[in-house]
Amino acid sequence: MIYSSILKPVFFKMDPEKAHHVVIDGLAAGGKVPGMTGVMQAMYGVNSSPELSSELFGLQFPHPIGLAAGLDKNGKATDGFSSIGFGFMEVGTVTPKAQAGNEQPRLFRLPPDEALINRMGFNNDGTAAMARHLAQRKVKRIPLAVNIGKNKVTPNELAHEDYRACIKDLYTYGDFFVVNISSPNTPDLRDLQHGDELKNLLGAVRQEIAAQAAKSNTREKPVLVKIAPDMTAEQLELTVASIVESGVSGIIATNTTLSRTGLTHDNKSEAGGLSGKPLRDRSTEVIRSIYRQTGGRLPIIGSGGIFTAQEAYDKIRAGASLVEVYTALIYKGPGLLRELTGGLKECLRRDGYRNITEAVGADHA
After folding, report:
1. I want to staple 265 with a disulfide (CB 3.0 to 4.6 A). Which of 1, 110, 275, 279 is the partner?
2. Cα separations (Å) of 351 from 63, 137, 256, 310?
3. Mind listing the pLDDT tens digit for each residue in 138-148?
């Protein structure tokens, strides 16, 4: 209620990017105040429940709702985000060197469509800054993923070096890693999703993961690949086949879309990636296609347009083991996590499942 009645009206009068920084800086500051993460946990945290917990990639997830990459780009507010009810979170996208991103304005709200358009362009402070922030992390109750990308000035033929550098610099701090090759806001990045470029990139990533694991004398950390929703059926099939062949741990489906179908707000003409409600059905279709192609053997994290528990459950039944939110958090606030987890438990009871893992891919039975 506090968010919808007081905070959201204030934030929505601000420039979207300014509001974004206010939230991140506020959570980062709050996480440093003694006892404040406990207060946040009491206000917004989600109680553990056996029916929603799962193990994936050798990691324990208290429930399947995570925070997508893009909100905490530099890993500044992980203690705060870990205390408001998420089951896991992604930080980033981070690149080896700091970069300013695209010119402002570059983030736009579309309230009637419950959507956002962004053309941020991987604006971040680089891996060294993220390493400093993550080294100070105190609240480690949920798995943390590091979403990695390439610098804008790095040509595609050298992209693998940037991804390797990110892993080398941040391996200590991430529980798993996400290879972002699907943002529409870095020129030619999406070309890395196809053919030999994808195979070479993922081969280099796997090599670096193995090297860092050997160096630290630990097991190899999981790596997932985040893909775009805008591929044709044939392109998707070939991309998934290459990802499976590479031996990575899973896929995140999907990133933002270039489609503008059905939008009503004037900001629909802005360039960039669209997230939120309009992406919901397409991302679920992609999840369903991946699950069908892989026979459910490659774990999927579903992302795109989740505002209700039923929408999260639809992605899980389509084949997602975990799901992520971003835009819904902007529109609905941190109370979203209790709403989604409570609703998921109702969905499980309705369908006679004892644990969320039983519902994964149920639509294919």
Report:
1. 110
2. 18, 39, 31, 12
3. 999 999 999 99
Which amino acid does the sequence have at 141? R
pLDDT digits (tens, 9 = 90+) for 40-99: 999 999 998 999 999 999 999 999 999 999 999 999 999 999 999 999 999 999 999 999
Backbone Cα Rg of the chain = 19
Active centre residues (catalytic): 183
Whole-number Å distance between alpha carbons of 146 and 335: 25
pTM for the full predicted model: 0.96
How far, in Å, CA of 183 to CA of 268, rounded?
18
Closest CA to 167 of 215, 122, 228, 119: 215
What Cα–Cα distance (Å) separates residue 343 from each residue in 114, 237, 301, 310, 331? 20, 33, 19, 7, 18
In angstroms, the Cα distances linking 166 to 95, 180, 281, 356 are: 7, 12, 32, 33
* Polymer length in residues for the chain: 365
Overall average pLDDT of the 227-249 stretch: 94
List of E strands, the chain: 54-56, 59-61, 65-67, 88-94, 107-110, 115-118, 144-148, 176-180, 223-227, 250-253, 273-276, 300-303, 322-325
Tens of pLDDT, residues 273-306: 999 999 999 999 999 999 999 999 999 999 999 9
- Residue 244 sits in a domain whose CATH number is 3.20.20.70
Number of domains in the chain: 1
Q: Is it the case that residue 131 has pLDDT exceeding 80?
A: yes
CA 14 distance to own-chain centroid: 25
Angle (CA) 267 268 269, round 5°: 90
The domain of 151 spans 2-364
Beta bridge partners of 224: 178, 250
